[in-house]
Amino acid sequence: VISLFIVLGMVFTGIFAPWLAPYDPTAVNYAEVEQMPSLRHPMGTDEHGRDQLSRVIWGARTAIIVAPSATILGLVLGLLFGALAGYFGGWVDGLIMRVTDILFAFPGLLFAILIAATIQPRIEAWLLKFERLKPFVKAGYAEFMVVILALGLVGWAGLARLIRGQILALKEQQFVEAARAVGVRPWHIIIRHLLPNAMAPVIVSFSMGLGGAILAESTLSFLGIGINPPTPSWGSMIYQNFNFWRHPAAPVLLWAPGLIVASLVFAFNFIGDGLHEALNPHLD
């Protein structure tokens, strides 16, 4: 229950950030640089005089945009490739499983860094060719696209293996054999008969994937590859404030976004565990 309230609190904060934040999170005020926490700035200010509380609040909006989008992209790819591998088998199964082996052989974050670093300048250059999209790039939304693509393209492998196992078990069932016997097309069987019966682990995987996506986005932003300032991101805030660890307000500046990320990751994992137990009541 506590985990659910934490997640709902993040969603509420992200949606209503413009009304909850006391200041513009990108507004620079060099008259109030590196201020200690006070009534005017409850979490202090950073090296540019930006209100930290406002940036933390707006960071929730970044999280609720990136995490679900990247997780859904990985979910769609995982369902697609897992269903193909499980149903058709043969060389299709072998090829897809070898790709997942490669993805599992290295840390997923490493692949995400490589993808983000490779596609970011290309995506921005392509978008800048269109006059109407230049404000889109200047506002930092191209960085959102890059992070979503990078995380989605490395996040599908585990779910693909999971779906493959489910499809392998289900495709030998009598209702599938009956559908084949009357000439139902493979894609119709997969979409209408197999995937609906394999959704329980998908729901659990989606919940846990949200927490992983928040952590991964924060890590990419901390490394300077994800969401960069002045766009608020908890990861970039940790990096920026880490450089001022000697400042008296450093504990607040560092721990606030860090604790939020950690609490959300734990919350999504606990929700995933709860869903797993609810959807599999026969398990101890």
Secondary-structure map with pairings?
Blueprint: H1 2-15, H2 17-20, H3 52-88, H4 90-105, H5 108-127, H6 134-138, H7 141-154, H8 157-170, H9 174-181, H10 186-194, H11 199-222, H12 234-242, H13 250-279
Give the DSSP E fraction (strand runs of 2 or more residues). Answer: under 5%
Biggest sheet record: none
Distance between the termini: 21 Å
The succession of helices and strands, N to C, reads HHHHHHHHHHHHH
CA-based gyration radius = 22 Å
What's the overall geometry? elongated
What would CATH call the architecture? Orthogonal Bundle
The amount of helix comes to over 70%
Integer count of domains: 1
- The top level CATH class name: Mainly Alpha
Q: Compute the number of helices.
A: 13
Q: Give me the secondary-structure category.
A: mainly alpha
Q: Output mean pLDDT.
A: 85
Instruction: Give me the CATH superfamily.
Output: MetI-like
CATH topology: MetI-like fold
Q: Give the uncertain stretches in residue-range form.
A: none
How would you characterize this protein structure?
With 284 residues, the protein is mainly α. The protein has one domain (2-21, 45-279): MetI-like fold. Helices cover 72% and strands 0% of the residues. The chain has 13 helices and no strands. Helix 3 packs parallel to helix 7 (141-154), helix 3 runs parallel beside helix 8 (157-170) and helix 3 packs across helix 11 (199-222). The longest helix has 37 residues, at 52-88. The protein is elongated. It starts with a helix and ends in a 5-residue tail after the last helix. The mean pLDDT is 85.
